[in-house]
């Protein structure tokens, strides 16, 4: 008989291709070190454009608006009539985009939003060529290898800057819909679950029948006559231990201990040693496997206890686990789908009605959620909208959409990890009503999107590792790379997901049943993909932007801070009763206990390790304000919810052993408590009486107060960011525009505290000749960034403005201080009276 043709191996081929491409990309980057711009070179950069100065006209109607100095390039911007603008981008010649022209030290490229920008950009480029002596980069440092690697071409490709954010979102929804479809199928229809059986090669999974217990006939026969309790556990070496207690109608207890040692090294052979205490032959069907040779030794004893009173505890344990272990996932896919739809609808309703629309991010006027940026910069937004799309509104809307999708993504994640659809349904329900998640669902906080995107990435990794449909598994593998890259793009410290993504292949235990171990080929391919994206994209991005923070975070002080946070009843948000329902905290602890007594060691270590890793990582920053700490601890929510799910389903399984009255009362009480949680913790969901959120809401209320085309003067202090630049930025017809011309006043480098420092030239020009429509905003930076000796008063640079200009009050907001972000609070004292004002300038003094 001729040998069977070897089946195709798409996973191995993908692995070989990915390894080759990754090696070539990383080898090429190892040979090239990109020059960077260190801090403190602002004067040298401005000198490149002499005689043009910031804030002054370049040509008629066009002014030199800003110079932005990034780590690897420079952006010089001009602005003109009707919101038009253009930019010159200066890169090192070796790293310039294709099509860039060369000028001495730079590769020069352009971008523009309107006609008429050619003349001012030509003027700036002419000044650059006249001032550039070709030696600019020779005075700047080179990043040494291993300390701050340059951004790689792989990273640039994975950032997907050439794709539209709305298109990426459509792909996200498509992947989620397909994963939901597979997750909602009948038990064992897609995900293999087993109790220590031999794994098959990956190519045989496509045609393999759904797994059935070895003693299928005896199993069914036992359930036809008795109430059974089956507690099966698989050790890491493939050894299966099964305890079975059966209480027959006659009142006789038969104790069965089965110890099965399964050899997982070969497919064809297995040796099984069985010690059985039973009055029936438990191996009659196990030896009938056509592909398995089994040697079994059986010793049988029977213990009978006629005392009916002694059966009470046994019956309780038996009934508690019979449904959970034997037939745990009996609900039809249609019922599960309807329940999940109801949960998702409830989540949307709660998120639209309970939380405030407010900025709760740190550095809310500088940071921008990556998916928001991709949507805002993409061309599709202009084709799908007819009016202006404000950047701040888009940020909160993006977060809201991803928050509403979170229950669906955690359902997929939990379905694969816990290997049970009803447990996955419980996880989705808990996340839906969790006050901590609700609080940030309509804000600009990136953690919300990070949780949703990472859950989808985990689901795709699970599917690529364990799905029986090899085509679907290969598709998930191909798309998992961009999903992991987006997880790293959203927050660079998400690199801590790396060991968790690798570990998923080895968590073969679900909450009730075991999952068939994946083959070595799948494990190798998935690990190669995760490593390629992590070391080719995530790690370079983290080290480039946060290299110093990483080095500081690896110190022992971070571990000490994590220990203090873990034991703190206020700063450990998971045990803080103000922000987290105590009942859910108790359920999470019960989940640890349930996984422990059921010997789900790998699953337990995975979830607890996940929790502890993120607890340590975010202990690098421990803010004094508990509501800012709650933002950091959003990353603890997913493992916390999964542990609470294990606790809740464990309690429900035990409740089945009780009387009918209690079997109905306990689930009803748990459901009522979950539904009431958002309202019991409504204060935590809606509390925004903090300095930064109050200012955020105030400046956004002023958007329609200040007429379009006016000039806004504001003091930004140290690294605080321009409020009105972000508030006034919008997209229209595919172009980014600004409602006003914003002139920020940065904090002076050094000056005598008693006298105001000299103002920048563009500000002095406004003092000399105020435009017809000019506004002055005195916000939190005027009160927070003050020199020594001025605590409790305005900064001198703000105090001097009324002496230079005649002001008319337009809007005012007063409150007492409770700092949210300590980076922006600086010298503000708790309870200090604060006044934010907007004035219309009516002329010079």
Index terms:
845 residues; alpha+beta; six-stranded antiparallel β-sheet; five-stranded mixed β-sheet; 31 helices; 14% strand; disordered N terminus
Explain the overall architecture.
The protein is 47% helix and 14% strand. It has a six-stranded antiparallel beta sheet. The protein starts with 9 loop residues before the first helix and ends with a strand.
Form type: globular
Q: What is the arithmetic mean of pLDDT? A: 77
Strand content: 5-15%
Biggest sheet character:
6 strands, antiparallel
Helix content: 40-55%
Q: Helix- and strand-based class?
A: alpha+beta
Counted beta strands: 19
- Residue ranges: pLDDT <50 for 5 or more in a row? 1-8, 10-33, 140-162, 195-328
Number of discrete helical segments: 31
First-to-last CA distance:
103 Å
Radius of gyration: 32 Å
- Give the strand line-up of the largest sheet: 1-2-3-4-6-5
Brief account:
Helix content is 47%, strand content 14%.
SSE diagram, text form:
Elements: H1 10-30, H2 42-47, E1 57-59, E2 62-69, E3 73-79, E4 85-91, E5 101-103, E6 106-112, H3 118-131, H4 153-158, H5 165-183, E7 193-194, H6 216-225, E8 227-234, E9 239-247, E10 253-261, H7 311-326, H8 333-353, H9 370-377, H10 380-384, E11 389-390, H11 391-418, H12 421-433, H13 435-439, H14 446-466, H15 470-490, H16 497-503, E12 514-515, H17 520-553, H18 556-567, H19 582-597, H20 601-617, H21 626-632, H22 637-655, H23 660-680, H24 682-686, H25 691-701, E13 711-717, H26 723-727, E14 729-732, E15 735-738, E16 741-746, H27 761-768, E17 774-778, H28 780-784, H29 796-799, H30 801-804, E18 805-816, H31 822-825, E19 833-844
Parallel strand pairs: 13-16, 13-17
Antiparallel strand pairs: 1-2, 2-3, 3-4, 4-6, 5-6, 7-12, 8-9, 9-10, 11-14, 14-15, 17-19, 18-19
Helix pairs in contact: 1-17, 5-11, 7-22, 8-11, 8-12, 9-11, 11-12, 11-14, 12-22, 14-15, 15-17, 19-22, 20-22
């Amino acid at each position: 008989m001729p040998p069977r043709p070897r089946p195709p191996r798409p996973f191995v081929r993908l692995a070989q291709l990915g390894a080759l491409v990754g090696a070539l990309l990383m080898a090429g980057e190892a040979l090239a070190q990109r020059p960077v711009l260190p801090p403190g070179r602002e004067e040298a950069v401005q000198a490149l454009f002499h005689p043009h100065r910031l804030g002054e006209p370049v040509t008629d109607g066009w002014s030199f608006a800003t110079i932005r100095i990034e780590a690897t390039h420079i952006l010089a911007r001009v602005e003109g009539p009707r919101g038009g603008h253009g930019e010159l981008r200066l890169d090192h010649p070796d790293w310039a985009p294709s099509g860039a022209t060369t000028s001495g030290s730079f590769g020069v490229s352009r971008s523009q939003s309107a006609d008429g920008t050619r003349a001012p950009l030509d003027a700036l480029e002419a000044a650059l060529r006249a001032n550039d002596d070709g030696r600019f980069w020779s005075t700047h440092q080179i990043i040494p290898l291993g300390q701050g690697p340059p951004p790689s071409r792989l990273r640039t490709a994975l950032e997907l800057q050439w794709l539209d954010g709305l298109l990426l979102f459509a792909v996200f929804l498509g992947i989620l819909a397909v994963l939901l479809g597979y997750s909602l199928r009948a038990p064992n229809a897609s995900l293999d679950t087993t109790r220590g059986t031999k794994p098959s090669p990956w190519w045989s999974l496509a045609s393999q029948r759904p797994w059935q217990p070895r003693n299928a006939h005896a199993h069914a026969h036992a359930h036809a006559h008795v109430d059974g309790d089956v507690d099966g556990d698989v050790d890491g070496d493939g050894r299966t231990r099964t305890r079975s207690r059966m209480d027959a109608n006659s009142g006789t207890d038969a104790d069965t201990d089965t110890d099965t040692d399964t050899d997982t090294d070969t497919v064809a052979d297995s040796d099984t040693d069985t010690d059985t205490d039973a009055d029936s032959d438990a191996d009659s069907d196990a030896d009938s496997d056509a592909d398995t040779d089994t040697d079994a030794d059986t010793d049988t004893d029977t213990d009978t206890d006629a005392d009916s009173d002694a059966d009470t505890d046994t019956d309780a344990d038996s009934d508690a686990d019979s449904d959970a272990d034997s037939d745990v996932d009996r609900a039809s896919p249609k019922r599960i789908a309807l329940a999940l739809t109801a949960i998702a609808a409830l989540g949307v309703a709660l998120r639209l009605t309970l939380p405030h629309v407010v900025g709760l991010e740190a550095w809310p006027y500088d940071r921008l959620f990556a998916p928001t940026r991709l949507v805002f910069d993409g061309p599709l937004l202009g084709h799908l909208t007819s009016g202006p799309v404000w950047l701040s509104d888009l940020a909160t809307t993006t977060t809201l959409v991803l928050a509403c999708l979170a229950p669906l993504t955690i359902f997929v994640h939990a379905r694969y990890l816990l290997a049970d659809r009803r447990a996955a349904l419980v996880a989705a329900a808990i996340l839906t009503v969790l006050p901590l998640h609700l609080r940030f669902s309509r804000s600009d906080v990136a953690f919300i999107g990070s949780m949703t995107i990472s859950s989808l990435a985990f689901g795709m990794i699970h599917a690529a590792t364990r799905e029986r449909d090899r085509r679907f598994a290969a598709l998930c593998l191909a798309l998992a790379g961009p999903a992991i890259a987006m997880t790293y793009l959203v927050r660079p410290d998400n690199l801590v997901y790396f060991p968790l993504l690798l570990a998923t292949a080895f968590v073969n235990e679900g909450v009730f049943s075991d999952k068939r171990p994946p083959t070595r080929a799948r494990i190798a391919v998935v690990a190669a993909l995760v490593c390629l994206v992590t070391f080719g994209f995530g790690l370079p991005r983290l080290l480039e932007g946060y290299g110093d923070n990483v080095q500081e975070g690896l110190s022992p002080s971070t571990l000490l801070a994590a220990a203090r946070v873990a034991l703190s009843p206020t700063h450990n948000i998971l045990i803080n009763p103000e922000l987290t329902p105590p009942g859910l905290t108790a359920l999470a602890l019960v989940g640890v206990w349930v996984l422990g007594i059921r010997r789900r060691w790998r699953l337990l270590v995975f979830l607890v390790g996940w929790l502890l890793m993120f607890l340590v990582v975010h202990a690098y920053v421990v803010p004094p304000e508990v509501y800012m700490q709650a933002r950091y601890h959003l990353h603890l929510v997913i493992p916390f919810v999964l542990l609470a799910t294990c606790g809740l389903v464990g309690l429900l399984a035990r409740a089945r052993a009780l009387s009918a009255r209690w079997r109905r009362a306990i689930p009803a009480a748990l459901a009522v408590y979950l539904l009431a949680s958002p309202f019991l913790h409504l204060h935590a969901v809606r509390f925004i009486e903090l300095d930064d959120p109050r200012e955020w809401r105030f400046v956004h209320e002023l958007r329609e107060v200040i007429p379009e085309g006016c000039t806004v003067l504001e003091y930004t202090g140290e690294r605080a960011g321009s409020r009105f630049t972000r508030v006034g930025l919008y997209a229209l017809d595919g172009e980014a525009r600004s409602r006003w011309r914003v002139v920020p006043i940065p904090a002076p480098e050094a000056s005598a505290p008693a006298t105001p420092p000299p103002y920048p030239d563009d500000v002095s020009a406004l003092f000399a000749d105020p435009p017809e429509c000019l506004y002055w905003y005195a916000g939190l930076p005027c009160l927070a960034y003050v020199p020594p000796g001025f605590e409790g008063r305005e900064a001198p640079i703000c105090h001097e403005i009324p002496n230079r200009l005649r002001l008319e009050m337009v809007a005012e907001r007063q409150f007492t201080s409770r700092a949210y972000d300590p980076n922006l609070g600086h010298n503000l004292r708790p309870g200090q009276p604060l006044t934010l004002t907007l004035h219309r300038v009516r002329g010079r003094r």
